[in-house]
Amino acid sequence: MFSQDAWLRQELVSTLLNTWLTEIQDLLADQIEGKMFGALVGHLPNHCELPTNVHYLDQPQGLVVIRAYSGQCCGVWHWPSWVPSLLDHVQVASESWRTQYQLHCLSHKIKALQEQVSHPALSSQELLLELSTLRQQRTQVSRQHAQTLREFTYLHNVRGESCRLSEWWPKAPTGVGECCAPKLLSYASKVGIQPLALAEFWIGATPKRPPAQMIESLKLESPQFSQIKQVDFYEPCLSRCQPILPYLLAQKTLLESPHLPS
Question: 231 and 185, same structural domain?
């Protein structure tokens, strides 16, 4: 049974901090702001080989723990022994570089035209039309890139099924799947771990632009640790995480996606 009981989460985080506190501090050493971390405890059958990103919590009982951080940490998508991103960055690397180059060129042209248009003596209908066309091209390139990211973001659920994000949520916003909960649940299902408890928590200084979970979610409690300034628990965010949880937890099939056009 999957649980989000506050006590279980606190025990989970306490174990995580006691075990990997130094490593977490090292990851945050050069960061001005804190980071959202997550951990999941689950059961791994004894006959299954222990993946490199999985750590035993209680080997005789088959209890394991996996951990994740949201987005990038120190500019790196996947540090060893942490759960990887749902996005296959290797497959999209070449496409991303090409897209970034296109966007850079278009933005440079747009800026140059904006400077011309801002001077009444240089402005003309032709320039305004060209400026509008370039802006539309930049929007189209951005949309195409977002679709590519959705195509190479893979979701795995507790029933052993998998799909691309584009199949479950064709118009998902960028960043879907980069939070801790989707990373943990999807990876657990992929390697055969039965989820038992999940915790997401913020460690470190509050950012100037708080993540969605800080804005949308109900803060459950704030246990204090002597080594860490503050640890706050958060629910999966409404805008990016909760729409894919029904698939990850196998509460709905791919054909039952509420995000597909009827």
Answer: yes
| Alpha carbon distances (Å) from 251 to 50, 163, 238, 258 | 27, 15, 17, 12
pTM higher than 0.85: no
Is 85:117 a contact under the CB 8 Å cutoff?
no
CA-to-CA distance for 116 and 213, rounded, in angstroms? 42
Whether 193 and 223 share a structural domain: yes
Total domains in the chain come to 2
Only one residue has tokens 């999957």, namely: 2
Per-residue pLDDT of 101-111, as tens digits, reads 898 999 999 99
Residues 177 and 252 in one domain: yes
Q: Could you read off the pLDDT of 224-253 as tens digits, one per residue? A: 333 334 556 788 888 899 999 999 999 888
